[in-house]
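User: Hi! I'm working on a homework problem where we have to compare a predicted structure to a textbook description. Could you give me the structure for the chain below?
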Amino acid sequence: MQPRLFLVLLFMLLVQQTLTTPLLTAQILSEWQTISPTTMNDAENVLITTSNRVLVLTRSIGIWEVPPTPQAPWTLVSQNIPELVPMPPRPDLPKMFRRMFAYTVADSGVYGHAGPMLFLDNTQSAWESRSSNSALIYTALGLLRQTLYAGAGTLVPNSDAIRISNDGGRTWQQKMGGIGANSVSAVSFIPTSVGILAGTSLGIFLASSNESDWRQTQPATTNQIPWYIFKAHDSLLYAQNRATKAIIVSHDAGRTWSGERLNGFDGDTIFTIARNDKVILLGSNTGIFVSSNNGATWSRVSSSAVNRQPVLSMAIRGTSVIAVSNGRVLQATLQSATTSVWGYNADENFTITHNSASKVLYIRFAQTSPKASQIHVFNALGQMLFSEEVLTKSSSKGELVFHVGTLPRGVYWCSVYVERGVLTRKFVVE
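Assistant: Happy to help. Predicted structure tokens:
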């Protein structure tokens, strides 16, 4: 090959790579800073309650609340969490330790399992015991409206079934109809607008509010390794088999799944997903990736603190992103982003008036032709609180008067399912 021809081909290749590489601004996030105390080296998860409390769950030293200001001390909120003895003994844990094995956030607080089932009210610092059957160790919890769902991995004895509670975790009963087996390893429960999804060793199952049994929406893999499910929003869910590293995607609230390549994502294990109305953040075994175009492309967050490091958990509070990596708690600031994660914030045909109203909102949208449209309202955790079908009139205009007087103060999301996609807007109840 002639040298000049080689240089031309090399230049064309570089141009092509530049044009096809997802160019997501490096200014999306500020540099990460470690905010956890120097004595904390075993953080596992971070969660944000509906009252904007930030809690960090550790492997051995309990649960801590992150202060709103960097200089303030962290507060231990492990009262009434029992001390457990690791069986068999583990060198990485003390002889007695406090650890939350699973949790799920509700409007009024947090449910957690640490031997007994516990509940932490949004206004309290002590956990309330709801059930004391420590023979059942759950490693996955989920909540759909007022029903709690619980499951565990196959390595946990006596807990290999999905159970539900309709009284806040005080009493439990098995819910295995439609699973096709007497036992199953369930590792994730994700609420959507059509029900709740269970990621299990026998596949992905959906239980809707009007069905008594589970319905399989994705079959099991040959090795029966559980599917872990992650929710960006109701029309974008990811699931992964951690043995094969296969990733599947759902664009219809978990009804159907398909294999898709995550363009720009070069990790092999997804641990966590967090989002706001601007971006989706994905934590993996090799750092954090960010998308500002609804998951179409991903870019690695270049930062010395998280570059090529495992990120196990993330949460977004306002403009702050809080992450857990290598046992430490990190924080960065979201910079301005120009594109909504759904791409519809500039749609003038979708409006919510009286955004800060305490009683009534007017939701208006347009269709290209008269037809029925679904409207869903979600809280900040992605849990659906309201669903209604609205029929657009001959003018193709739809309107819904939504009463919010019974909702707690906070941030909510309204999604309207129309022909051109999902229109989503944020509103605030004060």
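For your comparison, note the following. The first strand starts at residue 33 and ends at 34. Helices lie at 3-20. Good luck with the assignment!
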